[in-house]
Amino acid sequence: MSSYRNRAISRAAEKRAAGLDVLRDRMPVTVASIGGQQSLTLALDAEARGYANSAVAYRCVAAIADNGASVPLVVRRPDGEVIDGHPVAHLFNKRPNPLMSARAFKSLLLQQMELAGQSFVWLDRGETGLGPVSEMHLVFDQVDVIVDKPLAQRPTTADVIGFIIRRADGTQVPVLPEEMLWLRYPHPFDPLGCLAPWKAARHAVDMDAFAREWQRSSYANGARPTGVVYLGDMNETEFNQVKAAWRASMQGPENAGKNLLVRSQPGSSGAKGIGYERLTFTPEEMAYLESRMANGAEVMMAFGVPHDYLAAGTTYENRTAARYTLWSDTITGKLEVIGSEIDLRMLPLDSEEAQFDLSTVAALQEAQDSVANRTRASVYSDTLTIDEARAELGYDPLPGGIGQNTLTPYRAQWAPVQGTPAGDEARSWDVDWSRLAPSSPDVGAVVERAVESVLARLLGGPSPQVDARPTPRLARADDAPSSPSLAEINEAYDELERAGRRAVQSLAREQKERVLRDFDRLMKKPERSASWLTEVRTEACALAREQQLVLAPPDPEEVPAARLTDMDVASGPEGWEERIKLRDFFDGRYWRRRTGQVLRPFVERAWRRGGTSISGSFDLDEPDVAAALDARVEELAGQVTATTEQVLRSQVLAHGVAEGESVPELRARIQRVFASLSDYRATMIARTETVGGYNAASFLAALDAGATTKRWLATADQRTRETHRQENGRTAAMNKRFTLTKSRWPADPTAPAAQSINCRCALTFEFEES
Fold first, then answer.
1. Could you tell me the CA-to-CA distances from 114 to 198, 208, 295, 337, 359 in Å, in that order?
2. Strands 29-30 and 38-41
3. What whole-number percentage of the chain has pLDDT above 70?
4. Do strands 135-138 and 118-124 pair parallel, antiparallel, or not at all (unpaired)?
5. What percent helix, strand, coil does the chain show, rounded to 5?
6. Which segments constitute the Phage head morphogenesis domain (predicted)?
7. Which of 104, 145, 551, 628 has a Cα-to-Cα distance from 468 of 20 to 30 A?
8. Measured between alpha carbons, how far is 587 from 567 in angstroms, rounded to an integer?
9. Which helix (H) or strand (E) holds 550?
10. Neighbour tally for 261: CB within 10 Å
11. Helix (H) or strand (E) run with residue 412 in it
12. Burial letters 410-439, b for 16+ CB under 10 A, else e
C-alpha cells in the first residue's frame, strides 16, 4: 500500500510541475484525474491582501492568536485525570521543534487558521514516517492534498492518501497522511474545504481600505478650513490674490481649522458687509466616518471579537465582559475544534484524550467565581450537601463520606457538646453526634483511630471505643440482646431510606456526567462516530427485522428491586447484546466497581443499624458478617449496573430503529436513563435495600446472640401485601424461611421479587435464657 501511495503521489507531482507559477501565487487549482487519483490544491491565502494594513483585522487576529497560544494542551485519561509528561502535551507546551518556542508555534498556527481557515503541521515521525512524533513544524508553503477518488464523487478525509509540499524553490516534498496534522475550520458544504474568518472579513477590510484611501487623497489635495469670512466684492485681481493666499497659507493638512479672510460677497450680512459662515462636514465626509465605523464593526464580527475588547474608552465592566465573551464565544470553540483534531490524529487510543486546559484563563474565572458564589449560597441555605457543592466546583468528595451532609449537620460534627459543665471538664473538641443528621455516612477507620488516640492522651486512660459516627442504639437496662419495637424500627427505616436515596442519586449524577462526556467525545471524532452510528443502525435494523427482541419494562413480580426500572428494556435470544456496543461511552466493569464504592457506605450503615439494634457488640468486621456484607454489596452493584447498561442498550437500539433521529435526540435518550436512576430507581433501591440490609444484619446479630426463633411483624396498612399481612405474628426457626413470603427476613434478596420489593416489614427474635 505504501509503494502504491508513493507512485500515486509521484504521478501527481509530475502532472503538477507545469503549474508551479500558479501555485506560488497561492490560487486554488483543481486538476483532472491522474490514474484514478485526484490532486486537490487548497489556497492558503496567508498573505491576505489588506490584512497587514487593517488595524482592526490585525488586532482581531492578534487577540485570538495571542490569547489562544497562552492555553496549555493536556492529555487526560477517561476518568478526566491529566497524564503528566505526555509527549504530545510536551510538544505543544514546551518544545515543538528546536527552532521555535511553543508559544510562538501556537500563535502562528492560530494566525494561519484565522487567515486561511486551515494550517498544515508536518510531524517528524522518523525515516519510516510511522514512528512517534519527535518534532512538529508549521508548513508555510503551498500544500497539495492527494485523494484517491474522483472529485465528482466528493472525496472526504477518508480518501486522502498523501500530501505534497511545494516549496517556493520548486522542490516537491511528498508526505504520508500520518506525517501531516491538517487543522482546519470545516466548511459546511465541502468535506475537504475550510472556512476562514478572514474570508468573511475581506469585504469590510477592502471597503475600509478604499475609505482610508479616499480620506488620504482628500488631505493630500487640501484640508477644509473651519470657516470663511467674506469681505465684500472682489474683482479678478483680488480673486487671484485670494487663491494665492489660499494656496500659500491655507492649503494642506497643517492649516486645517484656520479661518480664511476674503472680500465680502454682495448682500453679505453684518455691518459694512462683514459676515461669518461656518463650514460643516459634507454628506460625503459624514458617510466616510460612518463607513469606517461600520466596516470596523463588521471585521470584528467576522472574527468574533467584541467591540468593547478593542475600543478605547470603555469602562472596566464592559471590557471585563468583552474579555469573557471573547473567550467563551470565540476562542474556546476554536480551541475545542483544534484539540479534537489533535486528539483524533495524534491520540488514536480511547484511553487518551487531548484538550486545551481553560482552567487557568483569568477571563473565564469571572464565570467560575459566579458559579462558586451561587454554590456557596446553596450550601449556606442547606440546599446542597458539601460533596455536591465540591462536585460543582470540580473537587473530589471528602474522605469517608463526611461530606454527604448539608452545612448545618456537617458543622454539627465539630460543635461543642451541649450541656457540658464549664471548667476543665469541658472539651470543645468533643463531638455532639446526636445533632448530626442520621443520613450522614460513616467516617472511616482512620478518623476513628485518630479520635481514640486523642481521647487516650487527654483522659489518661485506655482508648475508649469511639465509632466514627455511632449508630443510634436503643436504651436497655442491661447488655442482653433484645428486639426493638416496630415503631422504632420504622423510624430507622425512614432515616436509612433517605440516606440510600441520596447515595443512588449521587451515583446517577456521576454516571450522567461521565457517560454524557464520553458520548460527546465520541461524537466529536467524525470517523469513529460515523462508524459507530452506522454500525448501531445496521445491527438495530437487522434485529428488528428478525423480530426476536421485545421492548417492555421488566415485570416487578419477576425481577429484584435493583433490576427494576420504569423504562423499556430489550429481551431476546442469548448473545444479542454483543451486537449493540456501548463500550465507547459506558464501561460496565468500571461502573460495577464504582457503584459498589458509592453504595457501600449506605449499605454498611443499614447493616450496622440493624445489627446494633439487637446487640451492642455487633461488629461489621467479624469475618462471617464481613463476608456476607461484601457479597451483598457486590451483588447489588452488579444488578444496578447491569440494569443501567440494559436500559442504555435498549435506548440505543430504539434509536437505531427509529428513522430521522439526530445525535442530540440520542443524547436525550441517554439522559433519560439517568433521570430514571435518580428518581424511580433510586426510591426502589433505597427502600428495598434499607429493609433488606437492616434485617439481614439483625438476623446475624440475633443468631450470634443465641436467638431460637424469629417473628414476622407486618406494617398494617393498605400498602401491605396480603401474604405479608397473613404472615404477621407468625414465627419460624432461625434456619427456616417463612412459609407465605418465602423469605428468610423482610426484603430478602433471595426471595421472589414480588415478596421483597418495597417491603416494610420487620423481625423480632426470641432468645435462649442464660
1. 6, 19, 18, 13, 24
2. antiparallel
3. 73
4. antiparallel
5. 50, 10, 35
6. 652-763
7. 628
8. 21
9. strand 550-552
10. 11
11. helix 407-412
12. bebbeeeeeeeeeeeeeeeeebebeebbbb
- In this structure, what are the phi and psi dihedrals at residue 632, rounded to the nearest 5 degrees? -70, -40
* Local structure of residue 120 (DSSP, 8 states): E
Which region, left, alpha or beta, applies to residue 620 given φ > 0 means left and ψ of -120 to 50 means alpha? alpha
* Tens digit of each residue's pLDDT (9 = 90 or more) over 93-128: 999 999 899 999 999 999 989 888 899 999 998 877
Residue 626 neighbours by CB distance under 10 Å = 12
Helix axes 102-116, 55-69, angle to 10 degrees: 140
Residue 242 clears pLDDT 80, i.e. is over it:
no
Number of residues assigned to the chain = 770
The DSSP annotation for 644-680 comes to HHHHHHHHHHHHHHSSS--HHHHHHHHHHHHHHHHTH
Mean pLDDT, range 649-659, rounded to an integer: 84
Q: Give the mean pLDDT of the chain.
A: 76
Q: Decide if pLDDT at 425 tops 80.
A: no
Higher local confidence (pLDDT), 223 or 575: 575
Query: How many whole angstroms separate alpha carbon 92 and alpha carbon 110?
Result: 13
Q: How many CB atoms lie within 10 A of CB 599?
A: 23
Q: 671 versus 204: which is more confidently predicted?
A: 671
Distance CA 397, CA 403 (A): 7
| Nearest by Cα to 232 from 202, 208, 264 | 264
CB atoms within 10 A of CB 10: 14
Q: State the virtual CA torsion across 629, 635, 638, 640 in degrees, nearest 10.
A: -90
pLDDT greater than 70 at residue 71: yes
Helix H or strand E segment including 60: helix 55-69
Q: Give the relative orientation of helices 486-524 and 526-546 as an angle to the nearest 10 degrees.
A: 120
Residues paired with 569 in a beta bridge: 552
Amino acid, res. 184? R
Helix (H, G, I), strand (E, B) or coil at 478: coil
> Exposed/middle/buried for 459, CB within 10 Å: 0-12, 13-18, 19+?
exposed
Grouping H, G, I as helix, E, B as strand and the rest as coil, residue 183 is: strand
Side chain identity at 226, as an amino acid letter? T
Residue 631 has pLDDT above 80, yes or no: yes
CB environment 85-117: b (16+ within 10 A), e (fewer): ebebbebbbeebbeebebeebbbbbbbbbbbbb
Could you tell me if 432 and 416 are in contact, meaning their C-beta atoms sit under 8 angstroms apart?
Answer: yes
Question: By the 8 A CB rule, do 468 and 442 touch?
Answer: yes
**CA distances to 115, 306, 330 from 325, in Å:** 21, 7, 7
pTM: 0.45
Element (H, E) at 509: helix 486-524
Largest CA distance in the chain: 142
- In 3-state terms, what secondary structure has residue 265? coil
Helical H runs in 658-762?
663-678, 680-704, 722-727, 753-756
Give the mean pLDDT of 405-422. Answer: 59
Residue 254 reports pLDDT greater than 80: no
CA separation for the pair 568, 657 (Å, rounded): 15
